[in-house]
Fold this sequence. Notes:
The chain is mainly α and about 70 residues long. It has a domain at about 1-40. Helices cover about 65% and strands about 0% of the residues. The protein has helices spanning about 1-35, 40-45. The termini are far apart.
Amino acid sequence: MNLLTSLAVSDTSIAIKEATETRKGLEIDIILHVEACLPESMRRKMARGSIEISTTETNTFSCAKSCR
């Protein structure tokens, strides 16, 4: 019985970790999408520096239809 309980807890912790990573990735995608839709003058005012960001095929937004 204890073995089954520990397996269930282990599975839950793995699922929570994966969900947290997915949520953070989606939050970053939304922020990048919103920032890309802002006018250039507003983006320059908010810029604090630049960072190279690589995206995966599964987590990308296209701003072509919704903003421009």
